[in-house]
Every structure is written in structure tokens, then in C-alpha cells.
Amino acid sequence: MNNSKIRLLSDEVINKIAAGEVIERPASVVKELIENSLDAQSSFIKVQIEEGGKSKITITDDGEGMSLEDLNLCYIRHSTSKLQVADDLFALRTNGFRGEAVASIAAISKLTIISKTKDMSAGNKITLLGGEVQNQTATSAPIGTTFIIEDLFYNTPVRKQFLSSNNAEATRILDVITRLAIAHPKVRFEYKNAAKDMFIGNKTDLKNRLAEALSSNIAKKLIPLTYADARISVTGFISPAESSTRKRGRFYLYIKNRPFSNSLIVKAIQKAYEAYAKSIAPVAVLFLDMPDEYFDVNVHPAKKEVRFSNPSEIYTAVYRAVKNTLYQETFGDSATINLKGYSDSQAIRDAGHSWSHFDEKPPVPNSKNSSLLELEESISQDLFSSPEFGTVITLSNQSFQRQEDTLQFTPPSFLQLADTYILSQDKEGILIIDQHAAHSRVLFEEALATFNENKKIVAQELLFAELMEFTTVEKSILKEILTQLNSLGFDIEDFGGNHCRVRAIPGTLSISKAEQSIRDIIEQVQEENYSESIPFDSLIKIWASTTAFRANEKLSHDTIVALVNQLLKTEEPLESPFGKPTMIRIPIEDIHKKFKR
């Protein structure tokens, strides 16, 4: 009798586990198979999907193709043409290499593969279900390979449950394709969602490919970047310091032409921009090259992340590359900035990673290089350095008195601090109101009340319609939410390609903020990754946040007074729609302590 609790897993279970690690969603399938197409020296790759890739994905290339022998091996786990010995893992020049992708896809779908090499008179076709061969025949086919994936996750329904809406999944696929297309401008890419063209990338150079992938408006502003030291080179394009129109930066990072993500490099880019831009939201397309022993792509099953053996050296190289480029752009091509004193320890400190043991306080400004605003910021940082200073106001700890369902107080005056916060006082101390969070709450509740009465937000028609250009990904997201945006007071119509025309905007939104508001809405919708179509109340929250007064926006005294009064009439005056505090109080007792009274 066998009393062992440990059992060997069946091949079926093993393959499903492997599939779960490598194939997270339809976009994962597309990424893995495009990488294989690129490794097969394809010059043309076509992707077609149905229902966001859930029901069908077809990927066709004109690459080298597979012989019958290779076709019968490609769907077996750990079969690969790219590795012979373990050391090959650290000297790779290919995209796919582990031999897990096709096996993982086959384990959780109905998979058909058609392939032909230039030496074959006819192609071969094989069909699998759940990794098991169902049929194999000869067939007429062009040189290259076609993968047809149907009913993805049919035998893993729990994973299928966690997929997003069809439009959201299609947009994720678009992001994967554009990132790979940027790295391979000499390859033609086509992407269709049902019968609709989503992305066309012609054989071209990198700058023109960036125009196709990111929009011509972004691409024409990018400045070239070239940097090399003894071991590391960085090339690519970055946006000028003052050209950002977004809340978040957009980073396209590549190593040996493979797309990857790495927070350390993102921090290096942002740090380099700090001296030149108030809003650090650049576009950066960077290609890194370095010795193979400097990096490891085996950290993540889907090869999304890269680990560096010398992170501070990589950080320093990227920081110098971006900083030099921005400096030359600002002061002329002949200008150079001396960064030789930028040490590895400084790089680690700037990166702020867990291996750093530095715990520095903010520097105290001096009269030679500091403004009054910097001084105020230093005092504020010091004041809030201990958790007991600065209390978020709660309903159980407030100085307001509710009279006829309205919170009221009559402060003697208001002061706007750093064009971001509204300062006042009550009987318990100093009140600091975040003007953005406060206005977001006001707009959110006003919009909710309007829709609860089955009305639309009043729109203001523009005298001249505004033409806006988007990236392919942004345009896809915009189409998904156009109907809801119309209810919020926008009138936006498709104008072909990556362009849309804005005919009207909400009455509460200034014309100068309209374009930025639309872009911010798209960015936040993309960040949220909703599993289904975006709920309308969630979109209202995003709309309120993007429409509200921003940080660093100067307000008149009358506007401040009106805002505070409107805030106090809302149902939840102490929280923004996203649950952040609209105001905090610094108790007078804590101020006494600071002055040692």
C-alpha cells in the first residue's frame, strides 16, 4: 500500500501549469508567436483576431517555415531550435528560446499550424486540441508559417473568467504589436480586429515606424539619443523636456532588440528630466546593448522583465545618456555636461531601490539657489516628517457643524500655497485643502446628480472643431468609450487614421484644458485595466479628476471661495471620488510644539 502524499503530476496538469505562467491572455499568445516569426527571419507578419482574441487568433508570416519533422516537435514542451547547452541561455540573439510557448498555447486551445519551407513542394497542416494531435495532412501553402488559435482557455475556464472586455483585450494586443514593431521597422506588420485595420506598419526606418506606432505628432518632436561607454551603449529617441502633454511617461525599452520593462531604468530617465521639466512624463524609446553577462532575461516566465547584474552601472549609463541629450538640446549640439562625478553610489541613491541603505532628509535650501517656494516645501516636508503631525480629517474628528444638512464654516481668509493647496484655519488649527481633490469631489457629485435625473452634462459647442491625433492604442481606447464621453458633454468623431475631431466639450471645462482632459481620460482608462467594459460611474470619477483644477494652477480668490463652499455642500466633502483626502488639519498644539512653546 502506497501511503505517499507526494505524487507526480500528469503531463496534462504540467502543461496547464506551464501555460498559466507563459500565457496570461490573448496578448501573450500574440507576443510569443510574433517573436517566433521574427526569429524565423520573417519580413511580413499579419495578425487577425476575433472577439478580442478569445475566440480566434490567426498569425501568418513569410519566414523560413518548418519541415514536417520540426512541425511534429514544435508543440512539445522544451523543444527549441535556439538552445543546445545551458550556457546558450546567456548568449542569446533570438526572441523566443525556451520551447514553452507553442506547447503552452496548444495545452489551452484548439491549435492549427500550417507551415512550408522553400525546399518543400507542399506544406503540412497539423491540428491539436488541448495539446493532443487530432489530425495531420499535407496542404497547399505559401512559404512561411500560420498559427490559428481558437477557443483560448476552453479547458481552463477560471482563467478565461479573468479576461477583460473584447475591446480591452484587443487594445492589449495592439500594445504588444506596436512595441515589437518599433524594434523591427524593416518588417511589415498588419493587425486586424475582425475586418477592421488596427495597425499597419510598412517596411521603413525607426523614425517613420515611431510615427506609425506613436503618431506623427509625437514622432516629429522626438530628439535622437546616442551614448556609449566602455561596456554599455544606449541609443534611441526621447521627447524634449517641455513637450509632455501627459500625466505619465511612456517608456519603450529594448535590450538586444527585445522589449522589456524595468523600474530602475524608468527612474533613471525621470531623474534625468527633473532639472529640465516640471512635469516628468516623457516619451522615451531606448535600445540598450551590453555584454551578455550583464543581464538575465530568465527572471519572468513571459520574458517581460530583465534583471541586471550591475544595476547601478546601468542606471548611471541611462541617466547620463538622457541628461546629456537634454542638455545639448537646451544649450546646443556642441554643449557637453560633465557627469563623471555621478558615482555608482549616487545612482543607487537616486534609484531609491531596496539595496540602498541611504536615508537622507530633504536638503535645507540656502539663499543662493533656493526660491521662497522651495523653502516652503522644505518646511512642509519637515512639518510632516512625523506621523503625528498633519491629521487627515474624518467625520468623527472635524470642526464643522452640520446645519440643515450642510457643512459650514466661516474662515477669515484663504491663501493658495504653491498654486496647489488652499490654506485656512478653524478653531483647532490650520486647514490645508487639496484644490484638485476638492474640485474632483464637486464635479463628481454634480455629474452623478445630473445623470440620476436622466439628463446629460451641458456641452459647449466649439466655434472651430479641434483635430486631435492619437497613438494607435489611444485611438482604440477612445473608440471604446466614445458613447459614454458623449454623455459627459464631449462630441468627438472619428476623422480617419489616428485622428479624431472634437466638436464640443463639457460646459464646466475650459477650452484650454479640453485636449489634455481627453488624453488624461484615455490614460486613466488604460491604467485601470477594467475586466469588463468600464462602468459609467468609474468613468465619471475619471472625468471629474481630469476636468478638475490641477496642481500648479493659480486660482482667483473668488474661485477659491466658491470651490470651498461647493465642497462643503457635497455628500462626502472629506474625500475625493477616488478616496483620497480633500483636506487635512495641522492641530495648533503641534504647531506650538514645533516652536517649542
Please describe the structure with a list of short key phrases separated by commas or semicolons.
3 domains; 18 helices; Ribosomal Protein S8, Chain: A, domain 1; 597 residues; five-stranded mixed sheet; Heat Shock Protein 90
Secondary structure topology:
Layout: H1 11-22, H2 26-39, E1 44-50, E2 56-61, H3 68-71, H4 101-107, E3 110-116, E4 123-129, E5 132-139, E6 144-150, H5 157-161, H6 166-183, E7 188-193, E8 196-201, H7 206-214, H8 216-219, E9 223-228, E10 233-238, E11 250-255, E12 258-260, H9 263-273, E13 283-289, E14 295-296, E15 307-308, H10 311-331, H11 344-351, H12 372-383, E16 391-392, E17 401-403, E18 406-408, E19 415-417, E20 421-426, E21 429-434, H13 435-452, E22 459-469, H14 472-487, E23 491-494, E24 499-506, H15 511-528, H16 536-547, H17 557-568, E25 583-587, H18 588-594
Parallel strand pairs: 1-7, 11-13
Antiparallel strand pairs: 1-2, 2-6, 3-4, 3-6, 4-5, 7-8, 9-10, 10-13, 11-12, 14-15, 16-25, 17-18, 19-20, 20-21, 21-25, 22-24, 23-24
Helix pairs in contact: 1-4, 2-6, 6-7, 6-14, 9-10, 10-11, 13-16, 13-17, 15-16
Could you walk me through the main structural features you see in this protein, from its secondary elements to its overall organization?
With 597 residues, this protein is an alpha+beta fold. It has three domains: 11-202, 2-Layer Sandwich (Heat Shock Protein 90); 221-351, Ribosomal Protein S5, domain 2 (2-Layer Sandwich); 393-597, MutL, C-terminal domain, regulatory subdomain (Ribosomal Protein S8, Chain: A, domain 1, 2-Layer Sandwich), CATH 3.30.1370.100. It contains 18 helices and 25 strands. The strands form six sheets. Strands 5-4-3-6-2-1-7-8 form an eight-stranded mixed β-sheet. The protein has a five-stranded mixed β-sheet with strand order 9-10-13-11-12. The longest helix has 21 residues, at 311-331. Residues 82-86, 353-375, 377-390 and 394-407 have low confidence and may be disordered.
